Amino acid sequence: MCAAFWSPSWDLPRFPPLLKPQFQSTIAHSRIIELAHLISENTSTIENALVAHKLPTPSFDPAVSVTFPADITVARDIVLDATQELHDLLIPPMNLIQRKASYNKLACMKAISRYSIQNCLDVGETKTYAELATACGLSERPLKHLLRHAMTMRIFAEPRKGVVAHTAVSQLMRNHDCKAWLELGTEDLWPSSVKLVDALGKWPDSEEPNHTGWNIAHNAPEPLYERLAADPKMAARMGASMSATITNNPAFDPVHLQRSFDWEALGSSLVVDVGGSHGTVAISLAEKYKNLRLISQDLVSTIDSAAPVPGDVADRVQLMTHDFFTPQPVEAEAYLFRQVFHNHSDKYAALILKALIPPLKRGVRILVQDACLPDPGTIPGWREIDIRDMDLLVKTSFNAWERDADEWRELFAKADSRFEFVRITQPQGSALALIEARWTGEA
Ligand SMILES: C[S@@+](CC[C@H](N)C(=O)[O-])C[C@H]1O[C@@H](n2cnc3c(N)ncnc32)[C@H](O)[C@@H]1O
Questions:
Q1: Among residues 193, 217, 247, which one ends one of the domains?
Q2: Which Pfam families does this UniProt record tie to the protein (predicted)?
Q3: ipTM (interface predicted TM)
Q4: Are residues 154 and 272 in the same domain?
Q5: Is ligand 1 within 6 A of the CB of residue 242?
């Protein structure tokens, strides 16, 4: 990784001790005491900040909702890593393997999704297993076994024996977009993940998008994106899933995109969000930057399943159908690609960049918000898990990999030497980096 242009703003010095425990000490108990101190000290920091911000203490009660303030990001990172490490140190290794490899967790999630169990119970309501079974159409006994397993993940609770209630987690699964994410995960992506290794064996060095676990699992000859283009229901599910992550996972909050670039300086410029799905990001930019004009482009099936642009920004945000493998029809001052390239192997990502060239004027910005793979153990561990997960997800679904800083630079160079690589930045708390390039071709 090239440090000169890669500038994550993590508080790096505090993390290596948490991430390399086995090399830290020869005294068996000292690491666990060290972790306990870190947890205690930083949990106090979190508690004090919550009190200062007049926020409730975190709870699984569906009535309680906490948005953690940004000033405790580092303390939370430390507590989350230290608690995980302490847990993993104290559990027998075989037990650890079995828990990390628990396919049963996903079976429970799939049952909840398939039978919409979360929607058969109102928030604040309780139902017996028999009542819930009648409401969701699953027999009482399997329902009870599946839900009691789910409860070990804090999905639903049993406040009194035989009686089921929502937790904050199961309540979130009722949200339209989160429900779509759960369906996509359990019906489309989990079976694909099971076939990832088979796909790697069958097509070891392929860059073709139809050589994936998804193709094997779903017995599909075409790339997943072709299926999405032809299947409005699936496209709607994918679009809603993207929105679920943006809206509910702070590491993907559009605010990080706002912090990564000087959008104000663009004034009333036109920005095209290429592959912008339902326009969630374009809308959030328009809401924040009152002069900015945006076009969010995506496939017909995705645009057709999008909700109308909210009235307050409708005059500055347009949803447009455009296939990004075909020449870009809109001349703009900046082009945004958010989580687009990570779905494409280098061969096809370079084609997307080439198709952008026709309307480009000298100096136009190309802004890519995507993961930039860190070296192992250089960012908080609980955040690294998300990036490594996404890395395998894009391989399973699209035959692509996430890229590190050098690979991003190489991608632009491969597409056209007139793309000048500018920099990579990553705000603290963000799962995604902003990779910036500039067009240096003719004006
Ligand atoms: C991972 S999603 C990212 C969506 C959005 N940029 C975001 O960050 O939420 C990738 C998007 O690319 C779109 N897409 C895939 N193939 C496309 C194509 N050939 N032309 C235009 N959009 C496409 C998908 O429909 C999807 O909305």
A1: 247
A2: Dimerisation (PF08100), Methyltransf_2 (PF00891)
A3: 0.99
A4: no
A5: yes
